[in-house]
Amino acid sequence: MRQLLGRTGLHTVCQEACCPNKWECFADRTATFLIMGQKCTRNCRFCAVQTGPDSLPDPDEPQKVAAAAAVLGLDYVVLTSVTRDDLADGGASVFASAIRAVRQKLPRALVEVLVPDFAGSSDALQAVVDAGPDVLNHNIETVPRLYETVRPQAVYTRSLDLLANARAMNQDMPLKSGIMLGLGETDDEIEAVLVDLIGAGCRILTMGQYLQPSKDHLPVVRFVPPAEFDAWREKALNLGFSKAVCGPLVRSSYKASASFFAK
Fold first, then answer.
1. d(Cα 215, Cα 198) in Å, to the nearest integer?
2. CA atoms of 184 and 150, how far apart (whole Å)
3. Do residues 201 and 167 make contact, with C-beta atoms less than 8 angstroms apart?
4. In the prediction, which pLDDT does 27 show?
5. Which of the 8 DSSP states describes residue 120?
6. CB 95 within 8 A of CB 128
7. What is the pLDDT of residue 25?
8. Is 182 strand, coil or helix?
9. CB 72 within 8 A of CB 8
10. What is the predicted pLDDT for the residue at 48?
11. Which residues of the chain have pLDDT under 50?
């Protein structure tokens, strides 16, 4: 896997975000492709991805991603990106090109995209939706009270609006979102976020433990016991989610195919 990524110059969120499941996924010959480079225009306090993009996206990247997915024999391709506020459309056209390239190379593969908020642009979101992903994911990440600390350049209501707008654009496209625990949120705040996500049309949920990627990032306030994640899964299903994957090492793209097809 590392040799393939090295040859193609592609990036994965598995590597750039220091995912604890990286080696398991690489051993299974799967990965979540990180498009538009490895540097982000934002500086979220929980994220290990570097900041400060210094180049335009590689115009050949969509075809490279599709070729790599074909080499790996993927039947479920997950695409995500750094946030590119420096691009006019936030990179929506790159997402659309990558989706279409994968479709051309692997006609039977399903494609899940984990998108940024595109600074609230409905036109950018529409471009991605029009490309026809099988699942659209946008992570809410944390509760509203902690946004200023955890993701100061994001807006809670903007993220909810993105999901609601995506639902309006294509009611048949499943929507997914994820939240981290362990940053100081309360149970009431977590439940309120789940209710908000249901109201926005989201039906697939991931919930995992925040882990501090370096001493320069936010500290862990609390390690949540596995039994609590189990309880949150039941709560989420009772609230109306059709699928909920909850556990300490769960990440939004971890075993995405299995969670999509899970009963």
1. 35
2. 11
3. yes
4. 63
5. G
6. yes
7. 65
8. coil
9. no
10. 84
11. none
| Strand spans (E) along the chain | 11-12, 32-35, 39-40, 50-51, 76-81, 110-114, 135-137, 175-181, 204-209, 243-246
Decide: 70 and 60 in contact? Cβ < 8 Å. Answer: no
Q: What is the dihedral of CA 152, 48, 139, 189, to 10 degrees?
A: -60
**Contact partners, residue 47, CB within 8 Å, separation at least 6:** 17, 40, 213, 217
**Mind listing the domains of the chain with CATH numbers?**
2-261 (3.20.20.70)
Residue 50 pLDDT: 87
Burial class (CB in 10 A: 0-12, 13-18, 19+), 24: middle
Round to whole Å and give the CA distance between 65 and 15.
16
Number of Cβ within a 10 Å radius of residue 3: 7
Cα 179 to Cα 76: distance, rounded to the nearest angstrom: 22
